[in-house]
Amino acid sequence: MKMFIEEFVKFSFKLFNYMVSEDRDFFWNSVVSPYSFSQAVSILLNGVNKDIQTEIIEKLGFKYNIEEFNEKSNKYFKILISNCTENLKVENFLLYQNDAEIKKKFVKVTKEFYNVKFIAFDPKNIKQEINKLVADVTNGYKNETYNIFPRGTNLLVLNIMHLDIEWVHKFNKSGIEDFTTFKGPVKQEMMYQTSEFDTYEDSEIISIEMPYLNSDLSFVAVMPKDLVYWETALKNIFSSQKLDDLLGKMTCKNVNLCFPKFKDFHAYDYQDYIKSLGLICLVNNLKLDNIITGSSSISWYILHEMIIDMNMNGNIANKIPNVNASNLLNKSGINLSFNQPFLWFIVKKDVENKCNIPIFMGQYLTPS
Known about the structure:
368 residues; alpha+beta; Antithrombin, Chain I, domain 2; 2 domains; 15 strands; globular
């Protein structure tokens, strides 16, 4: 199982590297869940013929047949949610037009390994149907973006992940400071606290790990000291091994922390990212022969949508009066201010397999 996790995390960084490099060209913030993406692809895998299954699995970097892949994906999910079932919700849905007949074998396999829930929909009401599913899983989050499907779409794979969790050390004050973007300084609402954190600093980067309450999840931020050397500084963590090494170098210190408060929304059409991973067969004329009975034409779609809310508590923000940042520094600790672009990861610590699994990955480049 350890090898599967290592291969999956390697795939995660490959996807992340492509996404952040593309978004950075446009000075966009990014957030992605490789696990969410893989769930949708894995479900579709069970609907194609053996040759295509083998090709896609190999392109993803794995060396298993579909039966082994399904079994290991299921075990991986159980590892992912262990010790955080109260905070992390994961649901898979397959929506199909209500006049379609889904093959029994596909239903059986995907329910067993991916807990897929099958829902028939009327094309006229698809947006309302998806909005309701999202709201149910995310405790009422109102989704208004599922209106961009290509005409004729008759099969939708939907993975919904919702993380609602609090910091171990909550921020207790806020203020307005300059945040240096690639285009220059802009005003940014910042959060402040003084607590003990694991940190690491060298000539190129500053990093910190902020633990979440009652779980083995933590938030890791990595900021280059000089934006001129952004690519040079950050290439050293664009792999699972190097992220593990970075976390292993951290030491606990009393920190006066200044960190951006932000809320970002992202919706991606995954077609370009699928192509970047070499999965052309997933995009061009994919025949899902093993899903719908008697269908010669299936138009499928994956939309990846995420929202990240960085706030005082870790989930719902407190309204706390703004204060002057100069009054917040504690002389007994080191001062860390994340006041320019940085990468961030929400990481699961897998003690048994001795690795760190990034569940969510992102870059923060500018106040939105």
